[in-house]
Amino acid sequence: NQRYSNGHGIYIGDNNHLIKNNYFFNCSGYDYIYASGTNIRFINNTFDFNQRNVTDGIHYQDDTGPVYFENNTMINVGTADNTFGYYFHYVDIAAYFTGNNSVDGENMTEYFYYNTDDLLFENLTRNRKNVFNQGHLVLYDSESVSINNCSFENHTDYGVQLSTVENITITNNSFKKNSQNLYGKNIKNLSFENNTVIEDYNALSVYFTKGIKDAVFNDNTFNCSSDESLYITSQSITDGNILIENNSFYGGSAGQGIYLQASSGKLLSPIIVRRNTFKNGLTGFSGYAASKSSGPYVDIYNNSFSNVRTAIDTGSCYFINITRNFIEGSS
Question: Could you give phi then psi for residue 293, rounded to 5 degrees?
Fold first, then answer.
């Protein structure tokens, strides 16, 4: 089959379909396939973009799934920021990839993992922004994960995205110039250590929301010139502790090192911010709370602030202890 038009190659609006052994070529319009139903299977299809910047190869709109992909091939994908081999409108879906689902040589099967435990990612280099709209690596509903010595760069959305992940170690990685370097929600037992995070967009760099329990951020370098380096929002901490220590935060006058936000009635449990370094014009620590019942409960001590715009801005937060910090103004 060939498709050359200003419409879709195939439009699927309901459930239970098999799309198998088709050839799509040179689409000048919208997605090659747009699908919003469940229990759809894509097997052994080939998509030749012919370098055109059409929207997507497969655009999947459903918010639950399941959806299945097996040995599909996409070649000559365009390079525009809104062109992707695979586009998921939602990330928390039951999507299953088997075999080699190639996007110009990159295997999409190794980009998205659902309900898969005991995962080890080492020495990956990901900088192709047009493979998957949701990021260079996406994990949904996983346990026991290690991400070590990897590089994630230049994605127009996410470098790494985590949803409902437990017992995860992220060590010695480079996150650079992704629109959002790391996004996580519903996270338990996180170790984030010895990573380098560089932000080059007006966007949050490392962002956690909707539940994070027991986490350590240690010995990382954050360079964020225009927005927050480490952002933890309302509903983020339920019963655990957050330790932020021995990190270096750099940035310009529009940047912030650590930002904590708590909505009314959403307690932020004990957070320790200690032995960190903040430099180069940013605001070191800032926060917001809607009411006293929101907290957060934060100890800020033994940190160094040098040539910053504002060292500590408590905003409307309550229960913050600030002790034994070194604060140096610009000369």
Answer: -70, -10
- Residue in the block written with tokens 């933890």: 232
Residue found under tokens 């985590």? 162
pLDDT tens digit sequence for 96-124: 999 999 999 999 999 999 999 999 999 99
C-alpha distance across the termini of the chain, in Å: 69
Q: Are 32 and 12 in contact (CB under 8 A)?
A: no
Angle formed at CA 221 by CA 282 and CA 259, multiple of 5 degrees:
45
Give the tokens for residue 187: 């996270």
Closest among 258, 245, 243, 237 to 310, alpha carbons compared: 258
Q: Is the pLDDT of residue 131 over 80?
A: yes
* pTM beyond 0.70: yes
Helix H, strand E, coil C: the string for 212-275 is: EEEEEEECCEEEECCCEEEEECCCCCCCCCEEEECCEEECCCCCEEEEEEECCCCCCCCEEEEC
pLDDT exceeds 90 at position 164: yes
